[in-house]
């Protein structure tokens, strides 16, 4: 049975992973330093935390479910003492991309991140429809990068990723640089920013006299159909009026050089701010 050490097991993300790992064939050792996290781990997962040394002894896989800002600090404490061939799994590309993982050639670094359940899906259960984050009932995609290590370790990393993010519908292999393009580039810098602007626009419409419920229904409904066309969920085309609104609206909302946020230098700067 493969032994897994889960660091940050009592945190928001760690508990999700611990609950899914509990259903697997892995032997899981849970590490949590905070009293609140230990209590959450006991209450929500039904397991007790162990000391880091006990968790790492004989562990073949070490999962770092800790914030980006402390991954480097935690990794520097534990990586020097890991047995050769150990796999360290990181849940976000930020710290690996920024160079916060200690250099050691005889261990594996594997990076994995969820896509989260898509807006357009065929979830047939209420639990699935309400699982917006993923990892509970709704199927989602995942992205994985073998940062360093033998090629056969990719399958081992992907297998544990499919457990911690279950249920998984699709798995994509990328590089760490590509994962950084996806997040923070595509998902946060672009998508989250534009969604915040959309919410601010809705609030402005409400301030001008339209009721909140009306404005929200109208915006989310149009996001549904417009998104279905734009992202190839259905075949369709916009009206001449809509195309004209886009033609004049996009320059008013977006700088001409907005795609520069996806340039390597800006991705690097964004990750440095995060970490």
Automatic annotation (TrEMBL):
Residues 4-89 form the Pyrroline-5-carboxylate reductase catalytic N-terminal domain. InterPro entries: NAD(P)-bd_dom_sf, P5C_Rdtase_cat_N, PGDH_C, Preph/Arog_dehydrog, Semialdehyde_DH-like_C. SUPFAM superfamilies: NAD(P)-binding Rossmann-fold domains. It comes from the Bacteria. Keywords: Oxidoreductase. Gene3D superfamilies: NAD(P)-binding Rossmann-like Domain (3.40.50.720), Semialdehyde dehydrogenase-like, C-terminal (1.10.3640.10). Residues 121-275 form the Phosphogluconate dehydrogenase (decarboxylating) C-terminal domain. PANTHER family: PREPHENATE DEHYDROGENASE, PREPHENATE DEHYDROGENASE [NADP(+)]. This is NAD(P)-binding domain-containing protein. It comes from Thioclava electrotropha.
């Amino acid at each position: 049975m493969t032994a897994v050490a889960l660091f940050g097991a009592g945190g928001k993300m760690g508990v999700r992973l611990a609950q899914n790992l509990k259903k697997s064939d892995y032997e899981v050792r849970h590490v949590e330093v905070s009293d609140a996290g230990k209590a959450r781990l006991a209450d929500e997962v039904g397991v007790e935390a162990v000391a880091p040394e006990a968790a790492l002894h004989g562990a073949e896989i070490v999962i770092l479910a800790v914030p980006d800002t402390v991954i480097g600090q935690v990794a520097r404490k534990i990586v020097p003492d890991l047995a050769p061939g150990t796999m360290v799994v990181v849940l976000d590309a930020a710290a690996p991309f920024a160079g916060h993982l200690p250099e050691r050639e005889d261990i594996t670094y594997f990076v994995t991140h969820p896509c989260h359940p898509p807006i357009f899906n065929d979830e047939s259960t209420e639990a699935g429809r309400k699982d917006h984050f993923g990892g509970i009932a709704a199927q989602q995609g995942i992205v994985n990068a073998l940062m360093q290590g033998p090629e056969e370790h990719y399958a081992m990393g992907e297998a544990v990723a499919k457990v911690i993010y279950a249920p998984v519908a699709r798995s994509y292999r990328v590089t760490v640089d590509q994962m950084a393009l996806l997040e923070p580039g595509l998902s946060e810098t672009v998508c989250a920013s534009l969604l915040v602007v959309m919410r601010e626009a809705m609030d402005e419409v409400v301030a001008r006299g339209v009721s909140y419920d009306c404005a929200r229904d109208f915006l989310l409904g149009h996001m549904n159909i417009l998104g279905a066309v734009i992202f190839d969920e259905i075949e369709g085309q916009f009206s001449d009026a809509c195309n004209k609104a886009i033609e004049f609206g996009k320059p008013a909302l977006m700088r001409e050089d907005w795609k520069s946020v996806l340039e390597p230098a800006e991705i690097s700067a964004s990750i440095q701010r995060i970490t």
